[in-house]
């Protein structure tokens, strides 16, 4: 799936967008997507790919827990999105998975919860984003409840195939059905902000440059525009 989009010029350009630029574009269209509380915890602070979603639940007291062997099914560039309900007391991602994912060319992992073995992710150069890190295993504490179903990441709903973008500021999620529209707007806004900056560096008052290039309309979600 991602390989097909990589052939498109606008998609390749969008890889350079920051989460702030994407977040502003989401605001412009009245869309949610900025995942509160999810931050980089290991590896490169850059991530851009389509979501493969997994939802966990507390372990059934009559059955052993599972953390899932999904890694073998994933294609290069995929972003693993794990919803462990924001739990901070046990992890659903560790060093073996980080090393295997890096070897397979997986795009990164984002967790509504915690991870461990972050030094191994650093060594492998594998991007990890989460609510934090904690050493205790999730085995026999949680179980996989669903694959490729809607999940929650921070305060954002994520569907399978949604675009996940990460950098040093955190994570944003772009709905797959609005991806082209949102990314195109973000690229356009970047050009406008560069014009503002260049004008100000050239001697124009910042207030004048902002007015000239419509700065105050760039991120403002229109009150009459319905979220789509």
From TrEMBL:
Q: What Gene3D superfamilies does this protein map onto?
A: Ribonuclease E inhibitor RraA/RraA-like
InterPro entries this protein is in?
RraA/RraA-like, RraA/RraA-like_sf
The cofactor(s) it depends on are: a divalent metal cation
Write the protein's name. Answer: Putative 4-hydroxy-4-methyl-2-oxoglutarate aldolase
State the organism named in the record: Polaromonas jejuensis
What is the phylogenetic placement of the source species in the record? Bacteria, Pseudomonadati, Pseudomonadota, Betaproteobacteria, Burkholderiales
């Amino acid at each position: 799936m991602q390989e097909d989009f990589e052939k498109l010029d606008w998609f390749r350009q969008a890889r350079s967008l920051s989460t702030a630029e994407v977040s502003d574009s989401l605001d412009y269209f009245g869309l949610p997507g900025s995942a509160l509380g999810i931050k980089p915890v290991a590896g490169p602070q850059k991530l851009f790919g389509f979501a493969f979603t997994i939802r966990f639940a507390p372990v059934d007291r009559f059955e052993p827990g599972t953390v899932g062997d999904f890694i073998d099914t994933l294609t290069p560039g995929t972003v693993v999105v794990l919803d462990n309900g924001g739990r901070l007391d046990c992890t659903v991602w560790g060093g073996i998975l980080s090393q295997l994912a890096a070897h397979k060319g997986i795009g990164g992992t984002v967790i509504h919860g915690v991870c461990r073995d972050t030094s191994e992710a650093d060594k492998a150069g594998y991007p990890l984003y989460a609510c934090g890190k904690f050493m205790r295993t999730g085995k026999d504490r949680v179980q996989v409840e669903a694959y490729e179903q809607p999940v929650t990441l921070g305060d954002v709903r994520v569907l399978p195939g949604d675009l996940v973008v990460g950098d040093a500021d955190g994570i944003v999620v772009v709905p797959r059905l609005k991806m082209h529209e949102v990314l195109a707007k973000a690229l356009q806004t970047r050009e406008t902000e560069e014009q503002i900056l260049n004008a100000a560096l050239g001697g124009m008052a910042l207030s004048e440059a902002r007015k000239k290039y419509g700065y105050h309309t760039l991120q403002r979600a229109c009150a009459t525009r319905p979220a789509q």
